[in-house]
Design a protein that fits this description.
With 161 residues, the protein is mostly beta strands. It is built from 3 helices and 8 strands. The protein has 2 domains: 88 residues, Roll (Chitinase A, domain 3); 49 residues, Thrombin, subunit H, CATH 2.40.10. The strands form 2 sheets. A 4-stranded antiparallel sheet has the order 2-1-8-3. A 4-stranded antiparallel sheet has the order 4-7-6-5, with no helix packed on it. It is elongated, with a radius of gyration of 20 Å.
C-alpha cells in the first residue's frame, strides 16, 4: 500500500518538538522502511485520517550515549564552513570508518561536536497523521515511494521560505 503522512518527533521528558515533517512523506508500506520498525508496525492496517502516537526508547534503537564521541577543539583548528551549531561533519578514523558528528556548541575559543545519534538517551514520541492510504502503482512499488512529477515552473513564482 502507498501511504502518505506527516509526523513530528517530541522529547517526552521536555515536550520539545525535535523534528517535524510537514510536507507529505510518501512511501510503499512493507516495501521500503523509512522510519523506525516499531513505527512501521504501528502503521500497519491504519487508514487515512488517523492520527497515531508511537512511543520509542531512543536507547533501545540507538544505544546509550557514548561520551567518548563528544569532543571539543580550538575554533582556529576548524574550517570556517563547520563553524555553525547544527552543522553535520562526516569524519573518518585511522581505520577508514566514517561517522557523522553534529556541531553542538560554539563559542569564541572552542567548537564541540557530538557523534551520538541526537535521539539516543531520549524517550521520544512519534505523532503521525496518515493523509492517504491506497494501492501502490507498479512504479511506486519499484522505486519504494512517491513518483515526483516534473513540471516547468515560472521562476517568478519561487520565493524563499
Amino acid at each position: 500500500m502507498f501511504v502518505e503522512l506527516t509526523y513530528k518527533v517530541t522529547d517526552r521528558k521536555t515536550g520539545h518538538v525535535l523534528t517535524r515533517v510537514e510536507f507529505p512523506l510518501g512511501y510503499v508500506h512493507g516495501h521500503n522502511e523509512i522510519l523506525a520498525p516499531s513505527v512501521h508496525m504501528a502503521l500497519a492496517g491504519r487508514s487515512a485520517g488517523e492520527v497515531i502516537e508511537v512511543p520509542i526508547d531512543g536507547n533501545r534503537i540507538f544505544g546509550p550515549r557514548d561520551e567518548s564521541l563528544v569532543f571539543s577543539d580550538l575554533i582556529e583548528n576548524v574550517p570556517e564552513e563547520y563553524r555553525k551549531v547544527g552543522t553535520s561533519i562526516l569524519m573518518e578514523n585511522d581505520r577508514g570508518q566514517t561517522r557523522s558528528f553534529l556541531v553542538t556548541h560554539l563559542d569564541d575559543e572552542k567548537l564541540t561536536v557530538d557523534g551520538n545519534n541526537p535521539l539516543c538517551g531520549r524517550e521520544i514520541l512519534f505523532t503521525l497523521e496518515i493523509l492517504a492510504v491506497r494501492d501502490a502503482t507498479e512504479e511506486e512499488t519499484r522505486v519504494g515511494g512517491a513518483i515526483q512529477a516534473v513540471a516547468a515552473v515560472d521562476p517568478s513564482l519561487l520565493r524563499p521560505v
